[in-house]
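Subgroup meeting minutes
Present: P.N., E.W., G.H.
Scribe: E.W.

1. P.N. recapped why we're keeping a running log of single-chain structure predictions: easier to compare across weeks, and new members can see raw inputs and outputs side by side.
2. G.H. added today's entry (73 aa).
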Amino acid sequence: MDKKQDVAYFLSFCIEQYKNKHRLSGSEAMDVLDRYGVLEYLADHYEMLHTQSRQWILEDIDEFISIRKNKVS
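Output recorded in log:
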């Protein structure tokens, strides 16, 4: 597999895990992740993030969104 495909699989995994954790539909999860630039963050930091546990990644996503929300407020 090439890196682009690896990143795509990783993003798909993260979207699905986030959706399940927060009991959202796929479109609701994508709305949140798009609104706060989470997918770009995950792709840009793939090398470090993909080695972490599912729980750690989800906590990191939640923290990233929280920080972004506070900057907007």
